[in-house]
């Protein structure tokens, strides 16, 4: 008789190492938003993967970094709480670029600090992403050696999440480590998040892709109306984009409101793909000063602000902003 396994698996790492890309590759579905902007992921996002006889509940988490706002501290807490509740941790790092020719990659000091925080009783699979960018794979060995000195790993898997290369092996290693147990989710469940959550995320994804500088970090999306008819017909969604300054609002709207229209069109297509039905999406932009440092505003926008758990000082927080 086959042994069934079911486990909760937290994907941890610094910003922009490819955690969300790995989740999407494992799901074979672009569930989580992805962009070149650091700290794209703000919430823990669950994706449910069936792999052989194992049900793997993968939690994509915000990249751990030095927080400069209350939102940043909330994001770090979210990642750490996901790690504490996990049966297995997938620790993602990437191969550093921009080195001198022929020089070996070195372990990022943030990775070493983060690995020292992981509980010794939780098995960790080390995933080294972006190996497709290194021509001489032998140069990766010193990186693996340096990270292995920080802690022991149940497995080490080099991958290219962007090309979905090596992802099956990552799932193989995770499945071995999941505890025995029956499935916790329905066979057709992909995530535990409601569609309105992803509606907001897909609007924010397009903001990340359409704007630069301070606007992406200063933007939050709030779903004001989500009306889904019982029968045929379009889903009506009204979303408010919060920014902190009038100048950011002007950039986001663009000349003749063209930029906001493009953001809305691309976001609507993403939402329609997820829902499998037509969507009528209306976007509004509002200036909400300093929302990233207001516990009340963070809570209203769906971020778990107001925690009394002490947070490290900025200088002690590993990772990059």
Which secondary structure elements does this structure contain, and how are they paired or packed?
Layout: E1 5-12, H1 19-27, E2 45-51, E3 54-60, H2 70-84, E4 88-94, H3 109-117, E5 124-129, H4 141-150, E6 155-158, H5 167-177, H6 195-210, H7 215-218, E7 220-227, E8 235-243, H8 246-253, H9 258-275, E9 279-287, H10 295-300
Parallel strand pairs: 1-3, 1-4, 4-5, 5-6, 8-9
Antiparallel strand pairs: 2-3, 7-8
Write up what this structure looks like:
The chain has 321 residues and is of the alpha/beta class. It folds into 2 domains: 5-177, P-loop containing nucleotide triphosphate hydrolases (Rossmann fold, 3-Layer(aba) Sandwich), CATH 3.40.50.300; 199-289, K homology (KH) domain (GMP Synthetase, Chain A, domain 3), CATH 3.30.300. Helices cover 33% and strands 20% of the residues. It has helices at 19-27, 70-84, 109-117, 141-150, 167-177, 195-210, 215-218, 246-253, 258-275, 295-300; strands at residues 5-12, 45-51, 54-60, 88-94, 124-129, 155-158, 220-227, 235-243, 279-287. A 6-stranded mixed β-sheet has the order 2-3-1-4-5-6. The chain starts with a strand and ends in a 21-residue tail after the last helix.
